[in-house]
Specification:
The complex is a heterotrimer of chains A (349), B (322) and C (333).
Chain A lengths: L21 H5 L10 H11 L1 H19 L25 H8 L18 H37 L1 H16 L2 H22 L5 H5 L1 H14 L1 H14 L3 H9 L3 H12 L1 H24 L11 H9 L7 H28 L1 H4 L1
Helix pairs in contact in A: 2-15, 3-5, 3-15, 5-6, 5-9, 5-10, 5-13, 5-15, 7-9, 10-12, 10-13, 11-12, 13-14, 13-15, 14-15
Chain B lengths: L2 E15 L6 E14 L3 E5 L6 H8 L7 E6 L2 E2 L12 E4 L13 H11 L6 H14 L16 H13 L5 E5 L7 H18 L2 E5 L3 H7 L2 E6 L2 E7 H6 L4 H9 L5 H6 L30 H5 L4 E5 L2 E4 L3 H4 L1
Parallel strand pairs in B: 3-8, 3-9, 6-7, 7-8
Antiparallel strand pairs in B: 1-2, 1-4, 4-5, 9-10, 10-12, 11-12
Helix pairs in contact in B: 2-3, 2-4
Chain C lengths: L3 E14 L2 E14 L3 E5 L6 H8 L7 E10 L2 E2 L5 H7 L4 E4 L3 H4 L6 H12 L4 H14 L5 H5 L8 H13 L5 E5 L7 H18 L2 E6 L2 H7 L2 E6 L2 E7 H6 L4 H9 L39 H5 L4 E5 L2 E4 L1 H10 L5
Helix pairs in contact in C: 4-5, 5-7, 7-8
The chains are: A mainly alpha (349), B alpha/beta (322), C alpha/beta (333).
């Protein structure tokens, strides 16, 4: 069938029909800009408005908890006589007198508690404690969980079976009970340690309760991470690039580190980020019921607990730590979600 | 001509299910013996379930053999520590997408072998070796910092080959290295394999299901069916003077890229499907699809015998087929 | 003179992805008569599958038709609504895909899937549909059809699943069967069975087939006409003898030279096509094959080549042919 017109639609001349040289052909082949997995994920993350908002909140909270106290004139244990139970932005009689006489007195933005301690700075320190607990606990969980999970997943067979049965048993242990038990049993030995052995003085500052929380996290809370890492390893180890590494002579340790865990990074980061609010909540809860940080170091949970008594007359003393806890947990959760959407390999291709 | 690799009665059974008393096995490779001479290419063909890929990997002890012996350059390596042999025996995989770690740069992928076997004196030496490997396979130095997903299938396959060559091996198992590539790229890679063999004196076990490619590159070809080697001969001999009924039907099933020849060629169409490797037929495994099958074929497994110089067949009724 | 079944004119189709516009089809024109077997040959990214999907209007969500017309069996496909398209899919035009495992729903029995098609497009009730299903399975060479109808896809082998796909595709005796790489995932002996079956059925039912593949052997055995595609363009179109014995486009010639031939008595070094397939996100202005072409001229880089008619049924898009025409004169019409 006739399909084609006989006339060309372009005007051409003879020189166009000369052979093209190598450079002209090369210029047609451009390799696209290099984009690594991280850059790709970051790009996706930036597009996610909620994720970016939650990241901003997290950064603001971090500044609030770690940087601002350096610029704040009050300290968390400082009890100012005569300034008890002040409402937000209220000045006590002594402070008003000082202002009259020309001295600048920084206002108590959130008021003071029953011992005259500025609520705002205590809120900052409380947030700091919560965040530190969250971060340290999550890192502990990450390390223990990934090592355990990768060994179980990589070696499989009997090793895997035994290791996962241990995980199952640990899952059934009631964590709060263990923390309380540990607190009771370890309180005196740890205090002895703090008082008698040099170098362990910090135990008293942080409080036995917090130490117990860390110990329990290390003993119990890594199991969720272990399961996730194990399932990642199980899928990844069947991939051909792992077989290729074996064929090159890579040792088991090398394969786990450089091939399996690296490719699980996405899941690891996300799970760790989601672990943080869970740890923070546990700490707040424990401090609330009195077995967390030792006084006078504030914790959002203990601040809330202290404020319950005066809830009728000084509602802001409960609202401040409660809102802070909610803000921290919500923003970390949303951040974790955002990270998962950005870095989850299943969505990548 | 010396033998570089020899396998004797190699078996690879995979335990699949069944209980303690009656375990079920897939006899992926069942009593296969063959040898490859130094500098030679032995092709291995067969359809799905024949065990050719498993055979290739078992030779490298990526799976531990269930039985039989692997003899490399005169030494029995069936039970030894493989690390020194990993420098001499390498593998190129089929899937250019799955066989490269997506989070490693190309340079690190190629350099991993150098790191493991400590082949480089210092950082510069390592870098130089990596670049020279990349150039040898037709890539260039700026590719070393990029990631696998930025490359096409053909280029990724080149990276895989560079990785295998980085240790300067003697023997390479090529496990369907061109099957996943576009036709126009296949020719590039096949040529590259041939050139590298000439330059470096490599020995290949070339596994593929495309008989045309295998015939082009191999000196001798083995045909596998359900875990057994059914025929082995020089390439020309196998294509034009095959004896085993399966080989004959395999050859005739391949569509010819030539319309006139296609019109006159007679197709031997096999009935039925390939039996499950979990439950292979008794006696000769091909008998369920073979038109020459008799009672003898049900009862007794045919022996893999040499019928003429270098030409081996496992069939009870060679005279009938010819 | 056979009736024209399919008439695609100047089709342009692009996929709009977050990374940019992928120009999948760039001015495609195809005509098919009833009873033809057309082969569409190309590699990944050539647009061969997209062409077939566009005939059935299956690209609508992801891809957009940005130009041209598609006429099939009297229907103007590019103007039809989704509902209207559903009436002809499975009915007048059917498609079978490469991987029968993913195109068959794993949670429904085979019988369920065949009956669904039958009852959707005809007035048959369940019992009649069951009878027709048994008829179809027998037609495609599956024994014990009643037993098979009760089985699930994972219980069948690859070859059998492909036969089931063919049975489903033929349930309503379509005028056109589109086969998208139907045997690529199958063993070569099974492939031979399936190809033979397709030819038998074509003659029995009198349908036309579009065979999409990268395998030149398959098109040589069963097709009458061949369209060679590269980067969304048909670079050469002709009868099977034209393409194999008188190829005019450098890509076609390159493909034919680069495949090893089983019947060669001596070892001939393969002549590959250098370079890599084109990036459809940034297609070059001129001929998409230019960077890989040994005879590339300056005009090839600047301008998209126009079609040259070589004989009644044979044309190709290449500036070399235009050059010959300008210099030689009367060879071409």
């Amino acid at each position: 069938m006739k399909h084609v017109n006989n006339k060309l639609s372009l005007q051409l001349d003879v020189s166009d029909f000369l052979p093209a040289d190598k450079e002209e052909k090369q210029s047609l082949v451009i390799m696209r800009e290099s984009v690594s997995f991280w850059r790709d994920g970051v790009r996706r993350f930036k597009k996610n408005k909620i994720a970016m908002a939650s990241l901003t909140v997290v950064i603001l909270v971090l500044i609030f908890a770690f940087i601002m106290p350096a610029f704040y004139p009050y300290s968390y244990e400082q009890q100012i006589r005569g300034s008890e139970n002040l409402a937000p932005m209220q000045y006590s009689k002594q402070e008003l007198e000082l202002i009259e006489s020309g001295v600048k007195v920084f206002p108590h933005i959130l008021g003071t508690d029953s011992l005259g301690r500025d609520t705002m700075i205590r809120l900052m320190y409380g947030s700091r404690i919560s965040l530190l607990v969250g971060l340290v606990a999550s890192v502990l969980v990450l390390i223990i969980g990934s090592v355990y999970g990768s060994i179980a997943g990589y070696f499989g067979g009997k090793v895997d079976m035994i290791m996962m049965r241990i995980v199952d048993i640990i899952y059934t242990v009631p964590d709060i009970l263990i923390i309380i038990l540990l607190m009771v049993t370890l309180k005196y030995p740890l205090e002895d340690l703090a008082n008698n052995v040099p170098g362990f003085g910090w135990i008293n500052r942080i409080g036995v309760g917090l130490i117990c929380i860390f110990i329990v996290f290390s003993l119990l809370y890594w199991v969720g991470m272990a399961r996730i890492v194990r399932s990642q390893i199980l899928t990844l180890k069947e991939q051909e690039f792992v077989t290729a590494a074996k064929a090159l002579g890579a040792s088991n340790g090398r394969i786990i580190r450089k091939h399996l865990l690296i490719n699980s990074m996405g899941a690891l980061i996300v799970t760790t980020t989601l672990q943080i609010p869970s740890a923070i909540f546990t700490e707040s809860f424990l401090s609330f019921i009195g077995i967390g940080v030792a006084a006078p170091m504030p914790s959002l949970g203990s601040m809330a607990s202290d404020a319950i008594g005066g809830i009728q007359s000084y509602p802001y003393r409960l609202m401040a730590p409660a809102i802070m806890i909610s803000l921290i947990i919500l923003s970390f959760n949303l951040l974790g979600d955002g990270l998962r959407d950005a870095f989850d390999p299943k969505l990548k291709d | 001509m010396s033998k570089l690799l020899e396998i004797k009665n190699l078996k690879q059974y995979f335990h699949v299910s069944g209980n303690l008393f009656k375990p079920k096995y897939v006899k992926a490779v069942d009593d296969v013996s063959l040898f490859i001479n130094k500098g030679e290419t032995l092709g291995l063909v067969g359809e799905s379930g024949c065990g050719k890929t498993t055979l290739g990997r078992t030779i490298l002890r990526l799976y531990e053999p269930t039985g039989g012996k692997i003899i490399y350059d005169g030494t029995d390596i069936t039970n030894v520590d493989m690390l020194p042999y990993r420098r001499r025996m390498q593998i190129v995989f089929q899937d250019p997408y799955a066989s490269l770690n997506p989070r490693m740069t190309v340079g690190d992928i190629v350099g991993e072998a150098i790191d493991i076997h400590k082949l480089a004196q210092n950082k510069k030496d390592r870098h130089d070796r990596i670049i020279s490997m990349l150039q040898r396979v037709g890539l260039n130095s700026e590719h070393a910092n990029r990631y696998p997903h930025e490359f096409s299938g053909g280029q990724r396959q080149r990276i895989g080959i560079a990785r295998a060559l980085a240790v300067n091996p003697e023997f390479i198992v090529c496990d369907e290295p061109v099957s996943a590539l576009d036709v126009s790229i296949q020719a590039q890679i096949v040529n590259m394999f041939e050139d590298l063999q000439a330059e470096m004196g490599l020995t290949y076990l070339f596994i593929a299901h495309d008989l045309s490619v295998v015939k082009h590159i191999s000196k001798r070809i083995g045909v596998m069916y359900l875990g057994k080697l059914v025929e082995l001969a020089d390439s020309y001999e196998l294509i034009f003077h095959s004896v085993h009924p399966y080989t004959k039907s395999l050859i005739s099933a391949i569509p010819i890229a030539d319309p006139r020849q296609s019109r006159i060629s007679k197709r031997i169409i096999l009935e039925g499907d390939v039996p499950s490797p979990l439950n292979p037929p008794s006696g000769c495994r091909f008998r369920t699809r073979c038109k020459y099958a008799t009672e003898l074929c049900v009862q007794k497994e045919p022996e893999f015998k040499e019928i003429s110089q270098g030409h081996f067949v496992a069939c009870h009724h060679i005279d009938k087929v010819q | 003179m056979n009736k024209i079944l399919l008439n695609i004119q100047n089709e342009r189709l692009s996929f709009f992805t977050p990374a940019g516009e992928v120009k999948a089809l760039n001015d495609i024109s195809i005509q098919m008569n009833e009873g033809d077997v057309l082969g569409i040959v190309g590699e990944s990214g050539s647009g061969k599958s997209v062409t077939a999907y566009s005939i059935m209007g299956l690209t609508d969500r992801a891809g957009r038709l940005i130009g041209g017309t598609i006429e099939f069996n009297g229907h103007k496909i590019n103007e039809m609504s989704e509902k209207e398209l559903q009436k002809i899919r499975g009915n007048e035009v059917s498609i079978i895909f490469q991987d029968p495992m993913t195109s068959l729903n794993p949670v429904y029995t085979i019988g369920n899937q065949i009956r669904e098609v039958i009852m959707l497009h005809t007035n048959k009730d369940k019992k009649q549909a069951q009878e027709r299903a048994i008829e179809l399975l027998t037609l495609v060479g599956i024994n014990e059809p009643e037993k098979r109808l009760k089985q699930y896809p994972h219980e069948l082998s690859g070859g059998m699943r492909q036969r089931v796909m063919i049975a489903i595709a033929l349930a309503c005796e379509p005028k056109l069967l589109i086969a998208d790489e139907p045997t690529t995932a199958l063993d070569v002996t099974i492939q031979a069975q399936i190809l033979e079956l397709m030819m038998e059925l074509k003659n029995k039912i009198g349908m036309s087939i579009i065979m999409i593949t990268h395998d030149l052997g398959i098109v040589a055995s069963i097709c009458q006409k061949i369209a060679v595609m590269y980067a969304g363009k048909i670079v050469e179109y002709g009868t099977v003898d034209d393409i194999f014995y008188n190829p005019k486009h450098e890509y076609t010639k390159g493909l034919l030279n680069s495949i090893p031939k089983l019947t060669d008595k001596e070892h001939k070094r393969l002549v590959p096509i250098e370079g890599t397939p084109v990036d459809l996100l940034n297609p070059p202005k001129g001929c998409p094959f230019a960077p890989r072409c040994n005879s590339c001229m300056k005009v090839c880089i600047k301008h998209m080549p126009e079609y040259t008619q070589i004989s009644d049924d044979h044309y190709s898009a290449c500036w070399l042919l235009q050059k010959e025409k300008m210099l030689g004169g009367e060879k071409y019409e």
